[in-house]
Amino acid sequence: MQRADSILSWDKILVDIKDYVFHYNIDIPKAYEDARTALLDAIGCAIESVSRSAELRNILGPIVPGVVTPGGFKLPGTSYQLDPLKGSFDLGTAIRFMDHNDCLGGADWGHPSDNLGAILAVADWLCRSAGSGSVRHTGPPLTIHTILTAMIKAYEIQGCFLTYNAFNAHGLDHVILVKLASTAVVCWLMGLSEDQTMAAISHVWMDGGALRTYRSGSNTIPRKGWAAGDACMRAVHFALLTQKGQAGARSPLTFPRWGFYDSLWEKGSFNLPQGFACWSIQHLFFKVMAVEGHSISALESMLVQYQRLRDRDLDAKKHIATIEIRTNGAANMIINKPGKLSNPADRDHCMQYALAVSLLKGDIPAPEDYLDESPFANSAVVEGLRSRMQIYEDPQFTKDYLDLEKKSIPTGITVTLTNGEKLPEVLVEYPVGHVKRPETLARVREKFDRNMRLQFSDAEIQTIKTAVEEGDNMPISDFLDLLVRNHEGHPKL
Fold this sequence. Notes:
The structure is a single chain. By secondary structure, the chain is of the alpha+beta class. The protein has helices spanning about 10-25, 30-50, 55, 85-95, 115-130, 145-165, 175-190, 195-205, 225-245, 260-265, 295-310, 315-320, 330-335, 345, 350-360, 380-385, 395-400, 440-450, 460-470, 475-480, and strands spanning about 75, 80, 105, 110, 320-325, 390-395, 410-415, 420-430. The strands form three sheets. A four-stranded mixed β-sheet has the order 6-5-7-8.
């Protein structure tokens, strides 16, 4: 007799994700144009992190020093050739580590290009291994066009879930959605069946999610820079295990008592705003400044106030009594941090710190301004300015932030001088990096060129851009070969 639980239907969300990944046809040219921009931006972020962060370089590379994986993934900006698990961790971490990659906001928020850690590592490994005959590939062609398709779908899965579902309200970190989206598209890339894909996805929900502790208050630590890489690695592992015959659970979300909804979602269920399509890739926010994304509108506002002070020969240190900052709920939750800041990871997620530094510099903070050795890190002047700031949520700003038609990221800043005079509020709703700002695309391209020049010549950069923009049929391994570097100055690379 067949057991009752063996004939259960798959949870509908698993079916919906699987159907989207395997059967949705992307027929909007702009989606592919935006994916090309996002791919280049993510590669540039990885090169920036590898080039600038000794802390990142210390955790890159094979677990056993000196090992070169035959047919393995070539990590951009290095000479490492890695297995797909460590490769997905390393690239996901490199893209994310300096908090400079693209983002999407909603009830929760996240960084969709994190998924490229899994997508590129698996695709490159499969491409090289299939070429050598060590792996039989049954999935889609391993070309740049396929990578762009996988990106669009991973971005959409992550974006649809974070729009109305606040994982942070349940104490869970948003990288659970990287694990979900990456698992789904990696299964498709690897040629797994539709049932195998749902089985792998079921493990994401049974796995639960990481706690947001490492992004919060005095517990903010560098794990926030490698959490996405960890999610990519986990996603690839689920796909590999399923490929080897490991079963999944059909109702990981809805199973009474032990399912995700009852155990971790207070017996609720997910709210998805629309069917999966290609909305997310077309509504990205690109981070063209090295600051937490929700603070960019505040920084633009503050630099206007800074210029007003300068025009009147006033000194921020002496003549500011209070700074009133009204912002959206997401910014208030993530980066409103009074009190002591313990480390770079803490500082780069503090709006008050970024604004104080911008007032003293007359410019946006640079990555080195968050480091322990920065003159701002232990500055009494910075602390004095932070203490004069009052941040609060404006409910209308939060409503506009969540509105799928508007999707603004508003912050307004009012400065009161020591003589009682108020400088009028400066309000920025659509900061640079937003799709509604005309200069965003040009700034993203400038950012890519600037990051890539840390390791590549202008001729090499143009070749890389041409490959992404015109080389749809280029094998992904040929593309990754363009990004290999040998680092005599960095023995670990």
